[in-house]
Amino acid sequence: MPDISNPKLWRLYEYWSQRRGDRKWPARADLDPVDMSFVLGNVILVEVLPGAPSRYRIRLHGSTLAHRVGYDLTGKMLDDMPVPEFRDLSRRSFDKVVGTGEPLHVINNRMVDDRMQQYESILMPLSSDGDRVDMLLIGLVYDGDMR
Q1: pLDDT tens digit string along 31-60?
Q2: CA–CA separation, 39 and 26 (whole Å)
């Protein structure tokens, strides 16, 4: 169980755990945006595209996050992220979750608005067939948004 300090992220992780039940991973269809309204602006939903090398499509880039970083990746490929360092870090994190099938808890720093800002994130696998991770549910909260 990850050592999540942000209450919104902890609640999102508990929701993910509850929705999976006795399965290894819940499916996207198991999630209801209404149930996640407490954190929806801080959620990223990523589609894992089949094939190698790994490719990722951002299905949802939460409005709070998009506003914070100054761009919206909803409907775009991870490769479209304009910040190479964060794009590469994101790809490594996505690959790890897809490869292990386990949630990944991260506390890190990133440059936003020419300032170093700390964030906390939880990346959780989703699977429509129970055999392959085909989506990622990500909650990300910056220090200033810890409420």
Answers
A1: 999 999 999 999 999 999 988 678 999 999
A2: 18
Q: Which pTM does this prediction carry? A: 0.92
Asked if residue 2 belongs to a domain, the reply is: no
Q: What is the CATH number of the domain that holds 63?
A: 3.30.450.20
Buried b (16+ CB within 10 A) or exposed e, 42-75: bbbbbbbeeeeeeebbbbbbbebbbebbeeebee
Report the largest interatomic distance among the alpha carbons of the chain, rounded to a whole angstrom. Answer: 44
CB under 8 Å to 3, separation ≥6 — which residues?
105
Q: Could you give the 3-state DSSP secondary structure of residue 65?
A: helix
| The residue count for the chain | 147
Residue showing tokens 């939880």 = 122
* Closest CA relative to residue 31, chosen from 122, 119, 138: 138
- What is the per-residue pLDDT across 113-124, written as a single tens digit (0 to 9) for each? 666 677 899 999
